[in-house]
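Worked example 4.2. Below are the chains of a multi-component assembly; read each line carefully before continuing.
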Amino acid sequence: MSNQGGVQYSKIAEIKGPLVIVDGVDNAAFDELVEIETTEGERRLGKVLEVGNGKAVVQVFEGTTGLSVSGTNAKFVGKVMEMPVSEQVLGRVFDGLGRAKDGLPEPVADSFLDINGAPMNPEQREYPKDFIQTGVSVIDGMLTLVRGQKLPIFSGSGMSHNILAAQIARQAAIIGTDDSFAVVFAAIGVQYSEAEYFKRSLEESGALKRSVLFLNLADDPAIERIITPRVALTVAEYLAYDLGMHVLVILTDMTNYAEALREISAAREEVPGRKGYPGYLYTDLSTIYERAGRLKGKKGSVTQVPILTMPSDDITHPIPDLTGYITEGQLVLGRDLFRQGVYPPINILMSLSRIMKDGIGEGSTRADHQEISNQNYDAYSRAQEVRALAGIVGKAGLTPVDLNYMNFGDEFEKKFLTQAIDENRTIEETLGLQWNCVSNLPKNELTKVKDKYVDQYYKE
Amino acid sequence: MEKDGQTSTLMMWHKWPVRQPRPYLKRYDPTVPLLTGQRVIDTFFPLAKGGTGSIPGAFGTGKTVTLHQIAKWADSQVVVYIGCGERGNEMTEVLVEFPELKDPRTGKPLMDRTVLVANTSNMPVAAREASIYTGVTIAEYYRDMGYDVVLVADSTSRWAEALREMSGRLEEMPAEEGYPSYLASRLAEFYERAGRVQAKGSPERDGSVSLVGAVSPSGGDFTEPVTTHTMRFIKTFWALDASLAYSRHYPSINWMNSYSGYLADIAKWWSENISKDWLDIRSQTYGILQREDTLKEIVKLLGPEALPDEEKLILEVARMIKIGILQQNSFDDVDTYCSPEKQFKLMKLQVDFYNKGQQALKDGASLADIRSMNVISLLLKARMDVKDDEMPKLDKIETDMIEQFNSVTGVKVEN
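Applying the procedure described above to all two chains together yields the following structure tokens:
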């Protein structure tokens, strides 16, 4: 970092999209924070993207509208962007850059933290294994969320992802502990009504006082979106590792984040990767998602539920694709189920929780959990095949076993998957419903479950 | 040390430039299988010691679980695991789990034979480019000590992306999808460092480096540059299939798209060590799967009732092979590792079942009778119920099967 922090330059060579190119700069540092002062005295924030040949490329978070080449001053602050943190951030609302937005004064800071965090050494990580009960059957039973996991929701425009995320935030609990719990919510370019729904939902359940909200709404500057998830995660890490809280971070909508990144990449004239997104989109996303986890010797944890809307419901689009390669599973919402009015419309066959196996079983949920869940996956996949077949040959052409699978599929969707927005099911209820579903099948079809569990739980 | 009047200092360590392959005396043909205890790999698409394999798949298809399984159970003395641009928790999982697991051959913790090279996705990109070379150099070092080494790289796509990112920063002219034009030659150089060799030095010793690279094609599209170039330089290809993974068929290795170039080379090992019928039984099993694949098209159009009974039996047995052999539960204590003897026996039982079933149909038995035999459920669960040291249990299933076929065709058992 430059040791001459606070140097001011007034020679602006060029303004290009969200970028300002400052001339005659020496000793600026990569990622350094820059304060831009307009001719009218307005102050904006930016950061250094590139230095060299006496020039510095500065990305301005609030956008460059109204800036002019002459009369604009750029002050190189001499440090990277930092977020002031303390226990007082709980219950507060901030804007996308981490400045107070609720009309109250800025919270008194205990310390200032680099918003980029630092990569966790895998050796220092604690492997996630504590079951989080969300009260949503399909998640607890088949796509279990674990403390320290990053489990995104892949949704499409107009689907019920926000309702689901809000339900998870309200109901998530660890059985048998009274550790303190916090929610960090980062709205990245979402509509006012969506952010407001979330805030109200936390308020009604009394959870707002242990929540921190960061709001970059759809009409806020797009470039600010690069910063929003990072300030949110910095606060989450502080709450988790310094104050020992278990933090659930909800980031919505990561698609808007990736689009802001593409905008900057295009302005910098970089060689594009797929669909115009920069080649480093994977690395960049990982610096956000990998900030979930637990650390050895620390009490708290950071659990992430990022939400993204897949452009035209396409799961192979670069944003969901690269996200899926980084996160520990995904909850995919299905348009078909959504149209049928099923809530939550999770398509279990495309969804996955990678570290579920470590959070369930004897001692945390129940010994038969993994096996009964596997049996339900297997049966639902068979049910889908039978439904397709019935579309060709009609119900009359199906064997009796095929019909059993049809009944299974119907009961699975109506009784197990479907639940009310405020319905909080215990894990025992969830497992019981799973056994009810497979009890539609003859006993010898249950190849994934040990006989002793069949004897114990199968309902004749 | 003094030699020829010159004094030189010998260290207990030495340095080696990672981008330069270590020398050896001569190279052998890969004729010994690398046993991993995974049925779909060992039996259907085997890898040889000193061979190269690639495992491409979209996210969620089980690349990492399969690679972990290879790292755990491969019959090599040393495993080098490169976490190249992947999840931090996966590295932690290895660090937590491997010290607990016992190497079935030595009885020592698996961690004792494992080297981890960690560069998770949020760590620096330049180090990611180097991590692959660091790993393969460590592997060659152990090879030169006379060990069989397996190197697992998860994932080579992230390495290629690191190349792309640096190439972009250097403002080089991009080739396909922004990757540099030297991507193919870099991949070729890397995979060519595999091999079973006679190492330099005395006493005379042989060692091998087997390379297994994961590929993470964007959008699961196997026509993207990293996958297509990798396919040119490897001999075993395990194609992961998202639709199999969606139906929870794990490992989701697609048996129609995968291949192994080592099959003919290592068949000799199986026939000498396990059974001389191995190749024949394997071909019969694979044949049933191939027939099923063609029949599936007809079923899609006309429904299964349009088929005659002997073809319906093919569908039935193919389903049994999929559940009883191809699927393997890596989280089940018994099923996670399957000895070569058990692999062969399970396969032979399925083929016997098929042949006896066809014969029974000719002798007038009905398909419904065959379907209701309770030996089917035993066959399907044998992979989990029968431990490696309980092979007589499989013989018992065989006698049960013969009895049940006799009863459906009405033949009395002679005592």
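Take a moment to check your reading of the output against the notes. The first strand of chain A starts at residue 7 and ends at 9. Chain A has a mean pLDDT of 91.
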